[in-house]
């Protein structure tokens, strides 16, 4: 077993075991190793867009969750509730492991941050923890704010009224 240490926006260390087997699923969590998750990331996976969702499509999904992984300071600057359309959870990236139980596994979850890097990291983590419906929200602030314009909100609310 090799010990790996280094700096990646702070100190980290981990134990690394040599892998000589295929997928190691942990049934008690419905999860897999990060190695196994990476093996799934083929050309077909990325080409089919299985890892992402736009704000427009997210807001049409029933029971969808917007997981905002920005810092407390960022959220205090700009809140993204979208309360008419979906559940919004704010859990900063560094708190995800400790608050994992707050994120529903049985609903579509779109991970959002301001630049897309933290959302990609949290997406990968969630997938290794068995969150099959997790996606990265693409388009950033521009896509979200486009969906908050009165015309877009009216279309969604009107469609719901007609559908009920």
Question: What would your notes on this structure say?
Answer:
The strands form 3 sheets. The chain has a 5-stranded parallel sheet with strand order 5-9-8-6-7. Strands 1-2 form a two-stranded antiparallel sheet. The chain has a two-stranded antiparallel ribbon with strand order 3-4. It has helices at 34-40, 43-47, 55-58, 72-77, 117-128, 140-147, 150-163; strands at 2-7, 11-16, 25-26, 31-32, 52-54, 65-68, 87-90, 109-112, 134-138. It has 7 helices and 9 strands. Strand 1 and strand 2 (11-16) form a beta hairpin. It is globular, with a radius of gyration of 18 Å. With 164 residues, it is α/β, with parallel strands linked by helices.
Short description:
This protein is an alpha/beta fold. The chain has helices at 34-40, 43-47, 55-58, 72-77, 117-128, 140-147, 150-163, and strands at residues 2-7, 11-16, 25-26, 31-32, 52-54, 65-68, 87-90, 109-112, 134-138.
Strand content: 15-25%
CATH class: Alpha Beta
Q: Architecture, according to CATH? A: 3-Layer(aba) Sandwich
Q: Look at the helices and sheets and give the structural class.
A: alpha/beta
Order of helices and strands: EEEEHHEHEHEEHEHH
